Amino acid sequence: AAGVIQSPRHLIKEKRETATLKCYPIPRHDTVYWYQQGPGQDPQFLISFYEKMQSDKGSIPDRFSAQQFSDYHSELNMSSLELGDSALYFCASSLGLLAGYNEQFFGPGTRLTVL
Amino acid sequence: QQPVQSPQAVILREGEDAVINCSSSKALYSVHWYRQKHGEAPVFLMILLKGGEQKGHEKISASFNEKKQQSSLYLTASQLSYSGTYFCGTASLGNEKLTFGTGTRLTIIP
Predict the structure, then answer these.
(1) CA–CA distance from B28 to each of B17, B76, B95 (Å)?
(2) Which of B40, B43, B96 faces A99 most closely, judged by CB atoms?
(3) Helix, strand or coil for residue A83?
(4) pLDDT tens for residues A26-49?
């Protein structure tokens, strides 16, 4: 079965650079979630999109932005990178708007390292 | 705000049982359970949608006490493959996003 695809899998950037992470949800899934997970921590919700519209917002810094495109893939744009942005970034997808009712399937993640 | 899980960590011998608890200060309408191995993505285990609901998945089952705002995950006759960090994710009315718990690290030894 098709799973969530994320690219790139690993990314190394310098401070103050920009990064773009991509997420391709499971076919027919209309909702995408972005999470940030630091070492030894739980996934922290950043932002979600349903049918190409932002549906919820969590602890996403103003330096970050995201969008969902017509083909339902999503991109997380990160600017003015800081050392503290180093983390695993997961994308998850589900079918339906309400996060509480629908199981989320996670992609393999993008490991971002900021030097 | 974040659901609290207990215990924080547990070590079991293969074949032993474990219970992982998830407690929230908010009224919940659903609880999700995930298992995550180091460096990998969280894997969905099950979702409980209403108070008193219990579900099973092979030798892993869970219950949801809506009144107490708690959920428990039961692992019976644990296998080596059960090792990992277990997270509960909770959703409450008016706060639809999943909030993950503090995590429980489970280690199964032969």
Answers:
(1) 27, 26, 10
(2) B96
(3) helix
(4) 999 999 999 999 998 999 999 999
